[in-house]
């Protein structure tokens, strides 16, 4: 009877190796689950960043397109300063669109006649990476046009989570 009791006691418990195997398996599962969670969170931040950048870019382009399309004429079509376009609006008032501090922190797209009185079109969370307004004169088959080429970036995003979006649009004047 003593022999059976001793054998049962040895085979009924867990050995140190078995415990180490179980702990290792749980550790590996923990690493896999936490890695998966981190990738999901990073993807969500990237998606949020991309949406914020696109909304800012789309809003700016919509305002610029609407105003230039209804303009009477482009004031300076020499393309000497590609960061600014000046035009006469429907009321024959001279106004412009321009990019401020392109490539630097705090850069933005503005509408107005001068920086102190300008209206900011992009938010503080957006950085203008590149900006170009190119004018094309009217010819026999086409009215004057402006080509806008913008690249914007999420100013607060870091590394993989930061989004960069580019857009190019050509706008023809209706009222020239």
UniProtKB/TrEMBL annotation:
* The keyword Transmembrane helix is annotated on this UniProt entry: yes
Kindly indicate whether the keyword Membrane belongs to this entry: yes
Q: Please indicate which superkingdom the organism of origin belongs to.
A: Bacteria
Q: Show the stretches that span the lipid bilayer.
A: 20-41
Sorted alphabetically, which keywords does the UniProt record give? Membrane, Transmembrane, Transmembrane helix
Q: What is this protein called?
A: Type II secretion system protein
Which taxonomic lineage does the organism of this UniProt entry have?
Answer: Bacteria, Candidatus Woeseibacteriota
